[in-house]
Please model this.
Amino acid sequence: MTFEQLNISASLIKGLNELNIIKPTEIQVKAIPVLIKYDGDFVGQAQTGTGKTAAFGLPILENIEAENPKIQAIVLSPTRELAQQIAKQLFKFTKYASKKIFVEAVYGGEKIEVQISALQRPTQILVATPGRLIDLLNRKVIDLSRVTTVVLDEADEMLSMGFKPDMDEILSHTVNRKNLWLFSATISDGIQQIIDTYMQADVPCVKVEKKDVVNTAIAHQYLVADIPQKLNVLLKFLKTQQEARGIIFCKTKAAAQNLAQQLIAKNIAADALHGDLGQRDREKVMRAFKNEKLKILIATDVAARGIDVHDLAYIVQYQLPEQIEYYTHRSGRTGRAGKKGISLTFILPHEGAKITKLENELHINFEKVDF
Ligand code: AMP
Model:
């Protein structure tokens, strides 16, 4: 099955391919043909990582009236992170779209005034956390009268976070709704109640299994930094990680040692693990890392090979490895049970093609970040 066979336009397919999204996942194969018709409700039982954002996002994008500047679809998400991620994905899908479609994300924790002024511009798709959307509705600064499609993403999470009353209220404001699409990893009693209250009796339901998760729990990120900037940028990143443990990979022993000294000089609980250490020193470093006296291990690939720590919040590739398979070994040490781990890669300004190569060979997507 291809996206073309699922009736996705060539211009959107071009955007997908650029993100390494080539072959539709199971939820996409099952949901897109139903959703693209845009004429009713839908329940998708699928967890994060199965490609569900594209499963509902592509049918929405195909059906948006670009000449109408009003909000036509809303996607409700339990967290700001997910809301941002969904909006970003939809924006990327439309990179080559023949019609200009505007996606906006609104969520708590950020100045509402900024979001209100953003909403003055044409916005056809709104991704929102329920609480913030209610706030905007109460201030009467948002018009949902032209919304035809509402997506409840990770509906089970939204229920467990206590958003049921907000969801009810938002649904009551979408008077011209034709499509209510619910995605949830589980169909609990609470979810069933939403289905019974709001959806057509013969609502189509599709389910995909856990094993269909596309990417594991690793967020692949990269940033571009010149050699003189690297240490500063690294320090900023480490600050975001607070007490979490991670490994920083360097290509050579000298680089690992040098970086360890630089971090220790900044009072960071770090140490180097490299091939020159005797067995005893090596064990000492590892013990300190395992019992969390050390937060950060700075390692070469060879030195890290034998160590069995996987349960890490992040991995940094301070220098890219020579061999591509080392990238997999390195990043595979993060992505803790149920939590997303970060694999952050530093590249020099001329090394962009290396990221593309990793994306193509390993079938992963990288996100560019700044610190
Ligand atoms: P989601 O379940 O929507 O959070 O998607 C998880 C990840 O899978 C995202 O990084 C998507 O970009 C990626 N993805 C979505 N659809 C596909 C696909 N058909 N092939 C490969 N990756 C995909």
The first strand starts at residue 42 and ends at 45. DSSP finds 15 helices and 14 strands in the chain. The domain at 10-208 is CATH 3.40.50.300 (Rossmann fold).
